[in-house]
Amino acid sequence: MKRILFVILSAMFLASCNLPIQSPAPVTPVKPEKKTEPQVQPSDKVPQPPKIQSINWNGTVQPLVAQMVKANGVETGKVLLVDTVKNNTNGSLRALQVTDTIADAVSRKQLFQIVPKKQVRSAQQALGLSSEDSLGLRSKSIGLARYLSADYVLYSVVSGSNDQRSIEMQLMLVKTGEILWSGSGDVN
């Protein structure tokens, strides 16, 4: 009991102590200095935009397609899915444009019935796949081909750097996943 009384009296004593109150430090306003930006002299030279490298995909793909149609085990009139080209480069690639070029080159050979783009896109949506899927696996391609009732799938990958790219193409049998033909070439 004495302790409680002592604590209460100590608290009251400390609360009654007068401490000198300090006035706040004076504040003097400072006007900001006006910064003048250096004037840039107009230049007569216009900087050159970066050069866009044009790629002859048709010239790159044609020899590979010519090799593919001569492969053993390829039957005429079967349904072929030209899967979206996968980009394994360190730069950007117009994958859909390259895919269309491959499909056009294959259709000119009149060996396969190619699954129409519209049908492929609707199947991709139904399966929850993106047309720009960067995780393109052979198993996804075969699954998409099975969904579309295709007999073959043409799987393509572009790899390398912006300076030196190569394309690899594989023709696979959908039933078994067997690779019937494989070819590669430099991208020009």
Overview of this structure, please?
- The protein has helices at residues 2-16, 57-69, 95-108, 117-127, 138-147, and strands spanning 79-82, 86-89, 113-114, 152-160, 165-173, 179-186.
- With 188 residues, it is α/β, with parallel strands linked by helices.
- The chain has a domain at 57-187: 3-Layer(aba) Sandwich (Rossmann fold), CATH 3.40.50.10610.
- Strands 1, 2, 3, 4, 5 and 6 form a six-stranded mixed β-sheet that branches.
- A hairpin with a 5-residue loop joins strand 5 (165-173) and strand 6 (179-186).
- The termini are far apart.
- The relative contact order is 0.16.
- The mean pLDDT is 85.
- Residues 1-21 form the signal peptide.
- It is a lipid-anchor.
- Belongs to the LpoB family.
- Regulator of peptidoglycan synthesis that is essential for the function of penicillin-binding protein 1B (PBP1b).
Question: Concise description?
Answer:
The chain has 188 residues and is α/β, with parallel strands linked by helices.
